[in-house]
Amino acid sequence: MNGIYYYLIAFVVIWVLVAVFHERLSTHGVELNFPVIMWKTQRLRGLISRINKLSPRFWRWYMNVGIIVAFGAMIFITYTIVSTLPSVFEAPSVSIVIPGVDIPGSQIYIPFVYGLIGLATVLVVHEFSHGVQAVGEKIPIKSIGLLLFAILPGAFVEPDEDKLKEAKKTSRLRVYAAGSIANLSLAVIALLLVSLFSGGIPQFFEEDGIAIDRIVPDSPSDGVLKEGMVLQAIDNHKINDSESYVDIISSYSPGDNVTVKTDQGTYNVVLDKNPNNESRGFFGIQANKHFDLINDSLGPLPWILFELIELFQWVAMLNLGIGLFNLLPIKPLDGGHMLEILLSYKLSEEHYKPLVNALSVVLAMVIVFSIVAGFL
Fold first, then answer.
1. What pLDDT was estimated at residue 355?
2. 368-to-93, 94, 113, 277, 374 alpha-carbon distances in Å
3. Domain that residue 262 falls in
4. Are 179 and 337 in contact (CB under 8 A)?
5. pLDDT digits (tens, 9 = 90+) for 181-230
6. Could you tell me if 63 and 167 lie in one domain?
7. Segments of 224-284 assigned E as strands
8. Rounded to a whole number, what is the largest CA-CA distance in the chain?
9. How high is the pLDDT of residue 89?
């Protein structure tokens, strides 16, 4: 069964349970306002206040720098998305990410467990940072919670909207920038941890070929090759390392009948068109380096290094991607609110609001077009 169906089943179950037990759940902070389910609590407000009180001056200056970084990132991500429009049918710049689900047109498959952990870090760090900065700007927090918009899960920190509107422009900029800047900061920390763990690999392991991590469903390799197989040769071209593997598979065209030699036998695969480049052959294999343990002084413990590397790679990628996306100058994203505040320094409300609204519509259309192009 395609992974998307498990999500749909889970969301249907949630909606049914909330609808049936709504009165009982409402006493625990659950609100049902179709198409949104919200769970609100005030229990974590004290924790957010304590985090801010650890060093109020640090949070303020950290986000002063963050405002500059946020606007720079806004320009970067906007330019990136718009500039890739000419090649959108070959390599869409935007796609939906759902852990454990193959998304048509997306070159990225997010493992279920690592993906959920990564998305959890995105939500927690993003919303808590908004809350910590709001407290530092003397803006009360009304509630914290989780939500489900139809089938889209999320989290939120609910500041006092009236106090937020009355706050200084620089204060509001710091609050809006806080979430994405925290995501980008966590991405950097995760990448540093990946580098640290990767440094331990040569001490315990030696590269030995290429292993199949995953077979793309309904691809030429589906039902022929299996996850865990170690690729040894393709059409008598020996695979020594990842570089030789990439060189070999990039030389094939759709329709080629390829002989694949693995540690579990030899198989024939008839290649299809690559979804992102129809002139290239498509195996439907996602592979990675295969290693042998050469230093067993710590027993099997060093194998955990690979799990940690993959986990923090996804933490970094999801925090970076979603953090940048949230800085797009589109309302109601944080980037849209930040652009409005910036323009308000020179323009009146009757001028900057229509400008940001128009830009939001244009960029939203570009993003939708890119997603649809991926499916096509």
1. 95
2. 11, 9, 27, 21, 10
3. 202-299
4. no
5. 999 999 999 999 999 999 999 899 887 778 888 888 888 888 888 888 88
6. yes
7. 230-234, 237-238, 257-262, 265-270, 272-274, 277-282
8. 71
9. 65
Q: In this predicted structure, what is the pLDDT of residue 362? A: 93
pLDDT of residue 344: 94
- Which residues make Cβ contacts (< 8 Å) with residue 114, sequence separation at least 6? 99, 310, 311, 314
Tokens 């048509």 label which residue? Answer: 104
Instruction: With H, G, I as helix, E, B as strand and everything else as coil, classify residue 160.
Output: coil
- Residue 18 domain flag: no
Cα–Cα dist 207/291, whole Å: 4
Residue 61 and residue 183 in one domain? yes
Rounded (to 5) percent helix, strand, coil in the chain: 55, 20, 25
∠353-356-360 over CA atoms, to 5°? 135
Q: Do 171 and 291 share a domain, yes or no? A: no
- CB neighbour list of residue 43: distance below 8 Å, 6 or more residues apart: 144
- Local structure of 40: helix, strand or coil: strand
Cis status, amide bond into 332, omega within 30 of 0: yes
Q: Do 188 and 333 fall within a single domain? A: yes
- Is there a cis peptide before residue 35, judged by omega within 30 degrees of 0? yes
Tokens of 17: 């349970």
pLDDT at 92: 65
- The CATH number linked to 220 is 2.30.42.10
What is the model's pLDDT at position 88?
67
pLDDT of 320 reads 96
d(CA 321, CA 313): 12
Low-confidence ranges of the chain (pLDDT < 50): none
Whether 290 and 342 map to the same domain: the answer is no
Q: Report the predicted TM-score, pTM, of the whole model to 2 decimal places.
A: 0.84
The number of folded domains in the chain is 2
H-helix segments, 84-168:
112-136, 161-166
CA distance 242 to 255: 24
Question: In this structure, are 318 and 359 located in the same domain?
Answer: yes
What value does the CA radius of gyration of the chain take, rounded to a whole number of Å? Answer: 24
Which pLDDT belongs to residue 34?
Answer: 82
Q: Does residue 256 sit within a domain?
A: yes
Could you give the C-alpha distances from 333 to 167, 338, 364, in angstroms and in order? 19, 9, 11
Task: Read off the DSSP letter of residue 253.
Answer: -
